[in-house]
Amino acid sequence: KNDVVTVTLNRPHKKNAMSPKLHHEMVELLSALRYDKDLRVLVITGKGDSFSAAEDLKEFFYEQRDRMEIEALLDKSLEWRVRILRSFPVPTIAMVNGWCFGGAFSIVAGCDIAIAADEAMFGLSEVNFGHFPGGPVSKQISAIMRPREAIYYILTGDQFNGKRAAEIGLITYSVPRERLEEEVQKLVDKLCAKQSLALRACKEAYRDSLLIPDIEAALSYSGAKSDQLSFLQNSAWKDQGIKQFIEGSYRPGKGPYKKDG
Question: Which DSSP symbol is given to 98?
Fold first, then answer.
């Protein structure tokens, strides 16, 4: 709707646990969407009372006894949750409407912004069946959660709600469940008002800066990225954005400039 795609994980009878079929479908869908020139924002959520209860343990691990099959499935599951989401060209939002466990943390961490219901329940319960948060989960939460909270929930398997998830940095913020869709829509509208190429440059510059430890290399990258953006948008950030500020028609701290075309 209006160049915004909402993808809904649709296995409510299994709390939207991720099956091999779901992973294949998500890779196919997101691979196509990333080249949709009209797409402005991507939202991922779950149907019913769950966001996702992690991997479908029966279908993913117990019924797949062949090691090569398991490795192939793991690679497919990582393809969309880590590789595709990480480099997705438009802003991505995780709308966490309910239960969110284990491998679903990877979806939340893979999105740019995560908004949850206050009542949503999170948990890293792998320790309770004798395992640990595997795949990309431990790595991803180590980048966004403080060490004390991360190791506590990894070791105990305790559950926590949306408010607590915001406190410890797993999500951006939480709101009452009845306001969740309304709040996400407000954010979507705010993002759609921005210049799309600028949004993409913001994502790429931040993501890539995390991989550049040297400040001089980072400065060279930033200069090249600015030149690239100027070329792609025909210098609109200067000729329209800065010009309108100088003319007094808008203030950057209060919202975006009026775009031509």
Answer: S
Q: How far apart are CA 191 and CA 83, in angstroms?
A: 23
Residue 261 has pLDDT above 70, yes or no: no
Provide the token pair at 200.
């993409």
Which of 156, 155, 147, 80 has the alpha carbon at shortest distance from 111? 80
- List the one residue out of 112, 139, 20 whose CA is nearest residue 75: 20
Q: Report pLDDT for 56.
A: 83
Closest CA to 170 of 94, 221, 225, 228: 94
Residue type, 144: I
Residue that is written with structure tokens 């969407």 in the block? 33
pLDDT tens-digit series, residues 50-84: 999 998 877 766 666 677 777 788 888 899 999 99
Question: Which residues on neighbouring strands pair with residue 45, listed in sequence order?
Answer: 8
Mean predicted confidence (pLDDT) in 114-120: 98
Rg of the Cα atoms in the chain: 20
Nearest to 206 by CA among 112, 82, 140: 112
The pTM is what? 0.91
Q: Write out 102-148 in H/E/C secondary structure.
A: CCHHHHHHHCCEEEEECCCEEECCHHHHCCCCCCCHHHHHHHHCCHH
